[in-house]
Design goal:
The chain is of the alpha+beta class and 251 residues long. The protein is built from 9 helices and 12 strands. The strands form 3 sheets. It has a 5-stranded antiparallel beta sheet. Helix 6 runs antiparallel to helix 9.
Length: 251
């Protein structure tokens, strides 16, 4: 497993003794803070916990945590896309779902369980590592954090259910169209999306490399997808919604 680069926790602890803490600036300028786990806390409460949160940067392909690792922290995604995946005893890989900006990963750690899947960066990713002990302490003092955790757990369950019902069943073309719609949720303001490899599409959609290649080529001809580079594409949402409507009508 490739270890992520993260802020050294020792300098962060020095903040408690009054020295400069770089994480304070990270939290203060965070673009997702109002949507993050501690968004309900006021400035004074946030100032007391900055030194316990680590800022982590991952390059594509790096692993944030692995299945069966001891779960001692959760992670808020500030930017980028990660995939949650498992491998069978036979070595077959299956991508369970994707996670992106504002998602909270590793929730099983709150129950003192091991992580249920590998969390791997698809793009450059920035996350904040939040120790389980900190969540336990704050949950006892702030009931709204416990309520927010329950909402995020339900959101993760809903995402898993959607993945199973929309992306793992039905005709191959329908699954591919639904995947592109899901990827649009992680796209930028110009309509650019992270483009999985054909092998990754197969692991997401339970289809062969050849089927994934054929479907992507067809959607390019139809003007739904426009290649930007090897790992990015521009998605025409109007064309995608039109094709999805036609696909649903023909089923």
């Amino acid at each position: 497993m490739v270890q992520p680069a993260f802020t050294d926790p020792q300098p962060l602890r020095n903040h408690a003794r009054g020295t400069y803490n770089p994480q304070t600036q990270v939290c203060a300028s965070c673009g997702v803070r109002q949507f993050a786990l501690f968004g309900a806390l006021d400035e004074a409460a946030l100032a007391q916990i900055h030194y316990r949160i680590a800022d982590i940067t991952l390059e594509p392909g790096q692993t944030l945590y692995a299945a069966q690792d001891s779960g001692n922290a959760v992670f808020t995604v500030r930017s980028g896309v990660l995939r949650l995946e498992r491998s069978s005893e036979a070595g077959e890989r299956r991508i369970l779902r994707l996670a992106g900006r504002t998602d909270l990963l590793g929730l099983e750690a709150i129950l003192h369980q091991t992580y249920a899947a590998d969390a791997v960066a698809c793009t450059e990713v920035h996350v904040c590592r939040i120790p389980r002990a900190l969540i336990d302490e704050l949950s006892a003092e702030h009931v709204e954090i416990t309520r927010d955790l329950m909402k995020r757990w339900q959101r993760a369950l809903d995402d898993a259910d959607e993945w199973l019902t929309e992306l793992a069943r039905g005709p191959a073309r329908h699954r591919m169209l639904r995947l592109l719609l899901k990827l649009s949720e992680f796209g930028d303001e110009n309509g650019c999306i992270w483009m999985p490899t054909r092998q990754e599409m197969g692991a997401m959609l339970d289809m062969t490399f050849e089927t994934a290649s054929r479907l992507v080529s067809a959607l390019r001809r139809e003007g739904v997808l426009h290649a930007v580079d090897a790992r990015q594409a521009r998605l025409d949402m109007d064309a995608l919604m039109r094709v999805l409507k036609e696909d649903s009508a023909s089923r």
